[in-house]
Amino acid sequence: MNLSLYFKKFFSSNQSSGIILIFCVLVSLLIANSSAGEGFQNFLDKEVGTQLFHLTYPVSIWINDGLMAVFFLLVGLEIKREMVEGELSSFKNASLPIFAAVGGMLVPAAIYTFFNSGTEYSSGWGIPMATDIAFSLAIISMLGKKIPNSIKIFLAALAIVDDLGAILVIAIFYTEQIHWAYLLLSFGTAALLFLLNFLKVTRLIFYIIPGLFLWYFLHHSGIHATIAGVLLAFSIPTNVSDVETSPLEKLEHKLHFPVSFLIMPIFALTNTNIAFTSEMVAGVTSTLGLGIICGLILGKLIGINLFSFIAIKLKLSTLPQNSTWLQMVGVGLLAGIGFTMSIFIALLSFKDSIPIQDEAKFAILIASFLAAVLGFVILSMSSKKDMNAVEN
Predict the structure, then answer these.
(1) Minimal CB count within 10 Å: which of 80, 196, 274, 355?
(2) In the chain, alpha helices (H)
(3) How far apart are CA 175 and CA 170, in angstroms?
(4) Rounded to an integer, what distance in angstroms lies between the CA atom of residue 210 and that of residue 195?
(5) pLDDT at position 10
């Protein structure tokens, strides 16, 4: 096969972004545990930007708060399109990710608290509540067309609600100070964006520029700035017509390649930069480690599926189209990939103890790895069962 055709085929496949992401994780772990680890960390800690408007931050912050806002913008665009004309267009379908996300936050927090109530680790109850949307979507993308698209959309919607919940938890319980003036400016900018939508403004530039200000105001308010991407996405106009391409669809198309093959790999390289220590390993069997691992794996699995089951039995929601409960189990496990947001909450929870931070990081890494492998296996098994059922 011609080399250029091979690369074109690779980059156009559903699995390619997930493969690249996993490769970047391995590279980052190798760098962190080699002689180059300290230099790489120094690079991530290097402050860049301009003092004008107080925009000087470490490289890692520009990636996690800046580039990832673009990732959230793309996922938000996909969710809005599905709400208008796709899998989430009915209330029963759209409500299920919300119920599932609530269960996926409450049960892990309860499990962690069961292990750590009254201990020095008690403040970390928010750690297993978070789902890493980038990694979970990357893993499920590797399954390609083996699972229904509705399951992928359900996971994306669930992860967004989960992340918004985690951001609220951070803002309420882990943020020392909210800058209310910037927060009010954020609300005003968001209102302007939705007013533009109401007035049927269709040129994307009139949304992108206020969107940049929205990111700036949110970041300076003390709230995690990636929420700006979601708010911007939901303000951009779309339609149900197949004749004319909407502004939302145009932007979604433009963002797919840079997000999948640039932003997400950079995110993986910078956020898996974890150097292993003996203390980390010892911490896995402590109540801290057990609370995190059981919270992320069992807590997410039980919480998401229990609350989904209750919502469906009460006829408030329905299962995603063409999906099965086995696939829901797989999604529940993938949601246990806590990683970046979990690590962020761990740093806030134990900011006065680096050894405890390291133990928490390692437990999160183990839990996320197990959740990814188990979720992938279960979803693969579910696709084989579906194929066998069709053949029989």
Answers:
(1) 355
(2) 3-12, 16-32, 37-45, 59-61, 68-85, 91-116, 133-141, 149-169, 180-198, 205-221, 227-235, 247-258, 264-271, 278-283, 287-294, 300-313, 325-334, 339-349, 354-391
(3) 6
(4) 12
(5) 45
pLDDT at 20: 86
- Burial of 24 per CB tally in 10 Å (0-12, 13-18, 19+): buried
Amino acid at 159: A
Structure tokens at 338: 């806590």
Residues of the chain with pLDDT under 70: 1-15, 241-242, 384-392
Structure tokens at 90: 């009915």
**Alpha-carbon gap, residue 49 to 62, rounded angstroms:** 9
Q: What is the pLDDT of residue 14?
A: 57
Give the integer Cα–Cα distance in Å for 81 and 73: 12
Helix (H) or strand (E) holding 57: strand 55-58
Asked if residue 359 lies in contact with residue 288, where contact means CB atoms within 8 angstroms, the answer is: yes
Query: What is each CA distance from 371 to 102, 294, 307, 332, 363, in whole angstroms?
Result: 19, 11, 19, 9, 12
Cα angle value 157/158/160 (rounded, 5°): 65
50 sits in which H/E element? strand 47-50
**Sole residue written with tokens 């931050």:** 57
**CB atoms closer than 10 angstroms to residue 346:** 26
| 370 to 150, 200, 366: CA distances (angstroms) | 24, 47, 6
Torsions phi, psi of 196, nearest 5?
A: -60, -40
Contacts of 26 (CB under 8 A, 6+ apart): none
Q: How far apart are CA 92 and CA 151, in angstroms?
A: 15
Question: Coil, strand or helix: which one is 257?
Answer: helix
